[in-house]
Amino acid sequence: MKKTLLISFLTLSLSLATFLMYPSPIDSAAWNPPPAPALSDSPQTAANTRLTTELLAEGEIYGPEDVAVDSQGRVYAGTQDGLIKRVLTDGTVETWVDLGGRPLGLHFDRIGKLKLDN
After folding, report:
1. How far does CA 79 lie from the centroid of its chain?
2. How far is Cα of residue 20 from the mean position of the Cα atoms in its chain?
3. pTM over 0.90
4. What is the DSSP letter of 22?
5. Quick one: which H or E segment has residue 19?
6. pLDDT tens across 15-44, in order?
């Protein structure tokens, strides 16, 4: 038993030493990438002046989980307290429906009806 363990240990040691001492057939080389182009040099990375943002119904809608926009540009938002609020195109906010539960996803179907994903 001891002789078998000794032979196994010597074989493993010799294999490991051979593996560590034997040169690799792979000749590796470091890759040095070219310098990145400046952002202003390319039209693809220039600043976007067409995209603008605007906060809608700030402080009037509590915890919107999802939003959907209808064909008339009105924004619907499902809130944490179970309401679906509607923001009209003039910025007015109204409670559209009270579901009594939390609407987690909203979308409009092909005929323009608001559907819940949950």
Report:
1. 22
2. 43
3. no
4. S
5. helix 2-21
6. 888 888 888 788 888 999 999 877 666 677
DSSP 91: S
Residue 7's φ and ψ, nearest 5 degrees, are: -65, -40
Q: How many CA atoms, within 13 angstroms, populate the side-chain half-sphere of residue 49?
A: 2
**Which sequence spans correspond to the domains of the chain?**
66-116
* CA distances in angstroms from 102 to 53, 67, 80, listed in the order given: 27, 13, 6
Token pair belonging to 48: 């976007």
CA distances from 88 to 56, 59, 85, 100 (A): 10, 16, 10, 22
At residue 89, what is the residue type? T
- 34, 40, 41, 56, 71 from 45: Cα distances, Å: 18, 7, 8, 28, 32
Name the pLDDT band for 64 (thresholds 50, 70, 90). confident
Neighbouring C-alpha atoms within 13 Å toward the C-beta of 57: 20
